[in-house]
Each structure stands twice: as C-alpha cells, then as structure tokens.
Amino acid sequence: MIVENEVKVRLSEKNFQRVSSLLGPAKYYSQKNKFYSLPNGFLRLRTENENSFLTFKGKSLEAKFKACEEIEFKFPEDSEKKLTTFIERLGLKFILEYTKTRASYIFPDCVICLDILSNGNKYLEIEGEDQVIQEKMSFFGLSSFDIEKKSYFTMFCGGKNDRL
Asked: What 3-state DSSP class applies to 18?
C-alpha cells in the first residue's frame, strides 16, 4: 500500500513570507481539483500545467500526521476532458471543485509546497516520513500546535468528513 504522509500548516502573511524566503525563489502554478465520491474514499482529478493526475485517496489512517492510502496516475496534456467524461460515465458522483495556487519544492527526503487558496488563506505542506516532517517543522520555527487538521477538501466542503 502506498501511503501519503503529510502535515499542513496555515501561515500568516508574515510567516508565509518568512518560509518563502527560507525556501528560495518559487514558481507558482494553478491547480484545479475535482472530487468524486467512492465507497472507501474519493477520487481526485487534478489539472496543473496542462497535465492531469487521477488520484485515489483512501480513508484516513492512524498516524502521527495526516496519512491515507494514495494511488496516483499522471496523464498527458489535454486529458482532463476525456478523464472527466470517463469518470462521469462510470457513474461516480461529483462532489466538489476548487482551485489553488501552488509552488513546489522537491527535496531528496520530502516535498514542500506553499499553497494559496482562492479565499486568500496561505498554507505550508510537508510530505515525507514523520522524522523529516518534524525536522522541517522545527527548521521553519513551527510546532505541532500550528498543524491544520482539516484537508483542503474538508475546508471547502464546510467541515464534512474528508474520507466519504
């Protein structure tokens, strides 16, 4: 089983600028996310830079940070329309769509993202092993009290369970 293990932290404008300067120059891009209901999680269709990603997200797992089963496939340019039609033909129920702006930093031991949501809220995401996440949180001067427990999906759904 492939498990996504991550932490999300909401940042004030001041902390966002501080973390951004520690990470270095960023190239921001837009991500469109569409969600469809499944009995054991949900399916996400993400479009960014002309590429599409189809991702199964399973129910939340017991873990120190936010963890769930994740299986992802990348599709080439201009696949979004075909994938949307395919998903609809399968009879999956559309739940939600939202867009965010993201900058990604790929490191050997983790992926760090700076996100700006459509409502203007800013977040730091760190994906990796528990120890690496803890080290990066310390490096950025953040603590476990700063962790946002809700997924973006849950935030945009108004607090409903993010693993349907």
From this structure: helix
